[in-house]
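Pasting as-is:
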Amino acid sequence: MILSGIIKKILEIVQNVLVPENTQIQKLLNMPTGTLRELLPKSPVYSKDIFVLFDYQNKIVRNLVKSIKYKNNTNLRKLLAKFLYEEILDISMEVALFEGRMPLLVPMPMSRLEKKKRGFNQCEELCQEIKKLGGENITVSYNTLKKIRETERQATLDRKQREQNVKNSMSVQCPTMGKIKTVIVLDDVFTTGATLAEARRALLSAGARRVIGVFIAH
């Protein structure tokens, strides 16, 4: 376990050297966290149980998302995890106030083939960073929500095709799900909501009472 952690750290360092962020993103990483949070345009999404941090139409936001999604830069991942943690903690405290227990945080899953091609699931990586920040305040499960079949890339499809593409593509593997009242699903980009709807279907069918989506951008 220790050896695998060391190897992972070495690979991250090598990756960041071989695939450096562009100058603009590096400048953003050097900014104070609070300043950067205020600089990035807020998302226009205001919907029940859907929380989105930033506006994807902004070029800087798009670059940030693409970098975390395809390059998995350690420093950028930690930065975005801070923003997400603040949002998730606020949501969790409000949920705990009314329900008496903290919600469960789960990453949006990838299929085995998808994860093998990319080499990582950026949502899992973000959840790991959020857990480090939150400690006992955050409960994370990486195996509860599973993707059980391959799907086409959502970016190439229209709204109706997206819904059909992900329909019945996820399942829940948690025999005690009925004891969990609220689940927070973390994903990078909210577009039509089709993927979140499928995750919500699977979780509610397994016994969860409420499913909240948290995203970096829309």
